[in-house]
Amino acid sequence: MKFLIVFVALFAVALAAPAAEEPTIVRSESDVGPESFKYDWETSDGQAAQAVGQLNDIGTENEAISVSGSYRFIADDGQTYQVNYIADKNGFQPEGAHLPVAPVA
C-alpha cells in the first residue's frame, strides 16, 4: 500500500512539472528561382540557418549547383554551435570552431 501511495505521489509530481516550451519560428525568408535560391530562418530558441545557391555552367555537361551558407544549433550540452559551409563541385566543406581541422598535406 505504501508503494502505491509513493508511486501515485511521484506520478502527480511528474504531471505537475512544467512542459518544455516548443520553439517558434521568428524569421523565415526565401527566394527560389530557376537558377538560384536563398533562404534565411531563425527560431525562438536560437537555432538558425541561411544559404545561397547558384546554378553554374548552365547548359553544359558540367552544370552544377554551388551553395554557401551557415547553420546554428544548440547541442545536448547546452552550447550553441555554428557551422559555415560551402558545397560545390569540390564537395561539402564545413568550418566551425568545434570541428577538427585536417593537417596540411
UniProtKB/TrEMBL annotation:
Cellular component GO terms, alphabetical: chitin-based extracellular matrix
Keyword Metal-binding recorded: no
Extent of the signal sequence: 1-16
Pfam families attached to this UniProt entry: Chitin_bind_4
GO BP, sorted A to Z: chitin-based cuticle development
GO molecular function: structural constituent of chitin-based larval cuticle
Record key words, sorted: Cuticle, Signal
Presence of keyword Signal: yes
Name of the protein in its database record: FI01403p
